[in-house]
Amino acid sequence: MKEKSSLTVEPEIDLSALDDLTIEQLANEEALGSFCLAFRQREDVLNLIHQINLLIKAVQRRRGLSLGLLAGEQAFRNRFEQLQSQLANGLATLEWFAKNTGDLLSPREKENLHLAWSTISHNWEEDQLSDNFELHSHFIEQLQSMLVSLARQLEPPLVPQLIEQGDDDSSYPQQFKKIEVLNFVARQLPEMIEQIAKVRGLSVYAASLGSVDFYNDRKLRFLLKYAREQSDKLRHQAERINELLNNSFRSVGDLKNLELKLLYLLNTVEQDVLSGREIKTSSQQFFTLATEIIDVYWTVVNDGLMLLRRWHLNDLEAWQSLSHKEASDL
Prior knowledge:
Layout: H1 20-70, H2 77-99, H3 107-121, H4 129-152, H5 174-209, H6 214-244, H7 253-273, H8 283-321, H9 324-328
Helix pairs in contact: 1-2, 1-4, 1-5, 1-8, 2-3, 3-4, 4-5, 5-6, 5-8, 6-7, 7-8
Protein name: Lytic murein transglycosylase B
């Protein structure tokens, strides 16, 4: 008596037997998966941008406070210690996000994050002014470079078929408006903020010390000139963008209201710190005034990012409104 074979033969699947409906379902599932992955990745990009902005803001403040402390202004000590803890938490949070969001940041960028922080925090009280200033500034430049790189990942349309959807003005498509806002909040405004933050740091140091040397005098004069020029350009750009968006980016109006305050700061630095006479404005006054101005700029940045998030969610709604055929054709 022959033994029955223990091997079983799996029946072959006749792909030709799949009906059109099944094939369409598979195509829809693949398109859905691709869209959801792309949508979630952009959510991660927006989160990383927010984390980087928070870190830039904290590093800029640390530079200003540490320069004051190096010049002997101990009134900054408590704020500095609190900021140290905030910075450590912010860096750890950013590193976690970077580690758990795939390749949105390169391995080198992730490594540079920790290395730069270690460099500026190690034995910082022994730093020379120029070293402290440049190390902080270099760290911020690295963060800004990451910011621009991430923003570029948001420029292409999430779904090409949705480019023109929701456009009120076909002569200037929604996608172009999005790129304008991205450039404004991820490059132009952060660059302006950094220049004012540099003015804050050097002015705080000079006021704490009671004088300014030739090197920092030259640097401050350059920063003041840049800030004045960029302030006008940013205001015009902000007005143009808000007009394109039918006044939906309302916080950009704050930039116009900020002009007098910014002008007062720049003139005070020029007429007091750079006068060659005894500096009358205190380091804390410089720090507070500059910080108030910088915070307004950051508010505009955050509002711009909220606008981008809203458009991102609109893409989700638009995707859901596509027909099965349109979705599977992506």
